[in-house]
């Protein structure tokens, strides 16, 4: 009885004694809960990124993503996937999809379960307007680790069959269970922000769909950068905005928000996109946001060791597609001339280029392969490489794998060198080092190109292109450049052949008597016709398109179809020039066998 009475007394003590007290009690508890929840929210938000009042603007703009599949298509696809396989989902997420003319690119989060030797199947669900609901499977074209990207893995899938959705899913080859879906958006390769990297207190965004004019700076006031945060980003919304500093071609540079600038490590992995005004009289709130698969990265050195005693004197950057067979000769030759570091941007190759680069690495050539899946973006890719090389290199040459520096030294002023007939080892590195010490305001060295033809051949020369092709056009065509990456204009504007420089710096034209570039542009037909697949430059028309047919970017007299013209082996031959052939045979051939280094490798 005593204990029962005590419990009744305790209840009376804590029970409100009147209706007014009841209301006060209710609101006091509610206020406490709301305040506590608010402080927890602030704590979690600041843990993600520490905001300050000066840079946080709650714009929360929803991105106008263009879906290539209707909601009904996605519904039927999801239903098909649910019925497919009974195994648990893999611990990986498909973060984004990009539709290209000949494949679908999947950007996937990577974890410890991933192996680059794993094969994957691409799984397609039928659209609702098809005859029935089901799935088909195709083996993926390729699987690659994507550099510094937070996505981690790129998987290239075949295009979907007719009446099947481009919302492709994945599973291990001949396995069960699909990868976890993060979203079902399919972006077009022609209208998307595709890459972004830090550069000091700014971020540089690479984007398709701005349609800016080539070789000129555009009005940056028309553009802004939008930064996604946490759950907002997952829903396609962006919480921070900064104005663009520069805009040119496919590259937009913006300042980082102050909160991110104070903590740059917090920037990595944040999704970013570009907003642009629909017309010149529009206001900032009317920005149209481009779809985005870009997350901010920080470019890191991936070469053989760090340059502890300073930067490399001379590096080379190139962009390639299926050039594995040409890479060894090109790197071996230019390494002898003094190139110390190589950046190979691989534009969706499906040959043996990965194996070739791995072999060169084991032979102490300082070569790294960088996956660059974005087609028709050579200028933007070179801008990206210039940012990457700035931390490692004093000078960077931007050239193709069919272009070779050659030092004829026919000038009477080079009499001491003419006694041997050729330039010595490390000549190219010595040249740029001398320019740095004698002319510190020169930031670009332009070298004239001579274009070589098939030289009477019907099949690829067994000793390599430097020995096999010996007939060229008489007049030079254009030039290629070696640049100082620290002296480039902030726009990173380039037209493949040269970059724009910051004020106060200038370029020099290298005399043809000192050096030229042998451009083996028109090789035997079986090699040359591969160019019909696609041109890598943004503003150069593909061979199969009937535009600009009189341009120097095309082969004279060649149409829009990959059909061998009459007398192709004898075309583009006006001057026989065996200088580089003789130089290579004298300096690279094995004295006992007569074989060249790239021949040994092939055997």
UniProtKB/TrEMBL annotation:
One of its GO terms (cellular component) is cytoplasm. InterPro entries: Glyco_transf_92, Nucleotide-diphossugar_trans. Pfam families: Glyco_transf_92. The chain crosses the membrane at residues 21-47. Its EC number is 2.4.1.-. It is an enzyme of class 2 (transferase). One of its GO terms (molecular function) is glycosyltransferase activity. Keywords: Glycosyltransferase, Membrane, Transferase, Transmembrane, Transmembrane helix. It is found in: Membrane. Its main location: membrane. It is a single-pass membrane protein. SUPFAM superfamilies: Nucleotide-diphospho-sugar transferases. Belongs to the glycosyltransferase 92 family. This is Glycosyltransferase family 92 protein. It comes from Solanum commersonii (Commerson's wild potato).
